[in-house]
Design brief:
The complex is a heterodimer of chains A (about 290) and B (about 375). Chain A has about 290 residues and is an alpha/beta fold. Chain A has nine helices and 14 strands. Chain A has two domains: about 110 residues, Rossmann fold (3-Layer(aba) Sandwich); about 150 residues, Rossmann fold (3-Layer(aba) Sandwich). Chain A starts with 9 loop residues before the first strand and ends with a helix. Chain B is of the alpha+beta class. The chains are: A alpha/beta (about 290), B alpha+beta (about 375). The interface between A and B is large, with 62 and 53 residues.
Chain lengths: ~290, ~375
Amino acid sequence: MSILIDGKTKVVVQGATGRDGSFHTKQMLDYGTDVVAGVTPGKAGERIHGVPVFNSVEDAVNETGADTSILFVPHRFAVDAVNEAAAAGISLVVCVSEGIPILDMARVMKDLKNNSATRMIGPNSPGLISPGKSKVGIIPGQIMDQGNVGVVSRSGTLTYEVAHHLSHAGFGQSTVIGIGGDPIIGTGFIDVLRLFEADPETELVVLIGEIGGTDEEEAARFIKEKMSKPVVAFIAGQTAPPGRRMGHAGAIVSGGKGTAKEKIEAFRDVNVEVADIPSRIVDLVKAKLS
Amino acid sequence: MNIHEYQAKEIFRKHGIPVPWGEVAETPEQAKKLAADFGKPVVVKAQVHAGGRGKAGGVKLAAGAEEAETAAGKILGMEIKGLTVRKVLVTEAMDIAAEIYVGVLMDRKLGGPLFMVSAAGGIDIEQVARETPEKIHKFAVDPLRGLRSFEARNLAFRVMPDADSAKAAAKIFPCLYQAFADSDASLAEINPLIVTKDGEVWAIDAKMNIDDNGLDRRPEIAALRDADAEAPEEGEARNSELSYVKLDGNVGCVVNGAGLAMATMDLIKHHGGDPANFLDIGGSSSPEKVTTAMRIIYADKNVKSILFNIFGGITRCDDVARGIVEAVKGSPPPIPIVVRLTGTNEEEGRKILGKTDLIPAATMDEAVQKAVELAETPGGTA
């Protein structure tokens, strides 16, 4: 098992014929992901790396039975692409695009909640990977190993760094998921923790948070109340100055709220160990799993 | 992005919110002329991206033109929370009978806009939230519908002192929401909205913060950016699609990805050093981006060593390596550069770097330790 995606996941790539879409379609195929369709309006009938291209997500779903979509479209088209996927009955949409206005995302989330059963991951997410089974997104597959550690993170490359350490130390992963660095995202820490808790393959969860918002604090509360599996954490941004956006739109300490210190304390208060530096996460995992 | 009060007031005016007369002055003489032409008492207000202007002496009442000149003379050039005041707003002084707080912000936890009103206006709303949270009335606006008239009325009747002012405020609240939505704001605030002794309702202060992600499609708002309010390198970085925040330390860092960049800064601190900056070169980095990043960091005279921490996902290590080589070509690096490359095409990347003076490191910990040591060694050789 794993969460959200596995060997049976059928993926449609929205924007498959663009530069990034084409590159990552190939990467996903090489990893073993079952990419069944691409979508680029006006290019129906073409093939990209052997995958049939359709004019719409609806056509792609009808012809191929795709259930999961990944977007490689410029940010100004991303909202429409998410809505298109939801309207076509896609159950999981992964939004890699960065730079979507927050109000647009608030509207999308409200609309998804009102009108569909679609789950969105992102925006500003590297996607997710269930090692050895499937990857949907841009996470480099070669640094992952199949195993029992679930990883959930607001970051991209920091997640790779941590997963790299885990794999080297012999701790493979059930699923690694980047939930995205924006202030409003489709799937949060708690949603993912709930899935990991229910997944028989996952034995432990590594949570990688960062400054901004209160998602980590809420995750800490959830862990205390609802989780039986061990969780270890890392929080980035201890040296970030207040009031400044640190790359991610969501990574900002505002009005004295959202500091790394508060988040670390919230976890320690519920007996979740927090690594002081990324390379020590492995030590915490080792201590819990042996 | 922050905009100034006078700019926010202009947006409010366009959206039908009653804002009293006011104009901007950059010299005491201009302030004097504005006040003289207006002919009634004015308030002179510092235009600077910092809260607590009043307490810092940045807001002064002036009965006439001479006083306005004196007040502007005191305020212009003043430093408020480290920022120099370069402009003042000269605006009508009003007779205040009641002060109300009105604001709308993008609430992360809610996942949408939150409208807030309070009869405790005119003071720091964060203080009200801490000490007397029951005095703040909140309403989650449906972003697909906006703030509807009856919703605005219900809020207005909770905080306005009488029925007439409540009816007037109920017309203003939806305008404020619209100003917020049409500007891609993350915050739009009137503090205070006042009722005068004659029963008129006016917005006498205005604050807006803009979601940077909305600026692409709002060129008229992007144009309001005050270049004086940020370090010049930050503007250059933004134009090259790099995220850069200047800090006070001496270890310059170039990292791909915001989370890894923050973790790198933290690790520098952990190993006893001080980061000079946050710099994320982003996912699809090109050699040009790396070159720009290097130029920005070289411009910071505090920097004593530079650390590249690249974990390739979309970013190709050979692209980064080519960028570094390009940036130092022709002259040896004036400051030591430690490079850690892991991920896509890392072998090619290392080959390219192998022919240079750059200092390789295999892991993030090793790279950070080397960079911190080099920053502390006079002359730059460890």
